[in-house]
Amino acid sequence: MIKAVLFDLDGTLLPMDQDVFVGTFSGMMTKKMVKEKNYDAKLLGKGIWSAIGQMVMNDGSKTNEEVFWDVYCGIMGHSNRQDENSFLDFYTNEFQQVAAVTKPDKRANEVIQLVKSKGLRPVIATNPLFPKVSTESRVRWAGLNKNDFEVITTFEDCHYCKPNLNYYTEILGKLGLKAEECAMVGNDVSEDMIAEKLGMKVFLLTDYIINKENKDISVYPNGGFDQLKEFIEKL
């Protein structure tokens, strides 16, 4: 019996072209940091992207946040997290302009309200590469209320990233549920559908599908928001 439904955010509940989104916000962040801190843009890029890469490889010994700052500070030559306030300021202010490149769909909220009406527990299972302020902003851009979700994964409180199955196991621990009691909805074949290996039901939202390995998607329930509603109705 399904008790909770996990949702990816970027490209799923918040429709977007991932490449445009990443290119837009990373460009804005680099511009801010170069201007305010007089950093070398290439070194800054290396610091940020190397830190993100290590978060994806996190073995669970630290939070993703700790991994990010350890790697970033090591490359930038800092002895402490002296840029943390600048990053948080960016996500609080300039980052909000990035909403313009997303394509919110009112059906996302309809899906969440349907989940709640069925007595199921909604979860935002977005790859925890961002701080809480950034993730909650994107939830808001999608026309959603953060209080509707029992768990929202951010880099402050997660020890793994997608597609590591331990990422999903960590969420299950927070929910106190078994994989067989959950469903995962996402647009990335490799990162989201992998939850099926644990025993979760899955649904692939195809509007902004990411399928880097060209896998056969016919093996998964899939479609747009209307088909997703039908999938949830049957849970």
Can you put this structure into words, describing what you see?
- The chain has 235 residues and is of the alpha/beta class.
- It has two domains: 4-16 and 102-233, Rossmann fold (3-Layer(aba) Sandwich), CATH 3.40.50; 19-99.
- 43% of the residues lie in helices and 9% in strands.
- It has helices at 18-37, 41-56, 64-76, 84-92, 106-117, 132-141, 165-175, 225-233; strands spanning 4-7, 121-124, 151-152, 182-186, 201-205, 222-223.
- It has a six-stranded parallel β-sheet with strand order 3-2-1-4-5-6.
- The longest helix is centred in the N-terminal third of the chain and has 20 residues, at 18-37.
- The protein is globular, with a radius of gyration of 18 Å.
- 37% of the residues are buried.
**In this structure, how is the largest beta sheet organized?**
6 strands, parallel
- Helix content, binned percent: 40-55%
Mean pLDDT: 98
CATH homologous superfamily title of the largest domain:
HAD superfamily/HAD-like
Total beta-strand segments:
6
From the spread of the alpha carbons, the general shape counts as globular
CATH architecture of the largest domain: 3-Layer(aba) Sandwich
Write down the CATH topology of the largest domain: Rossmann fold
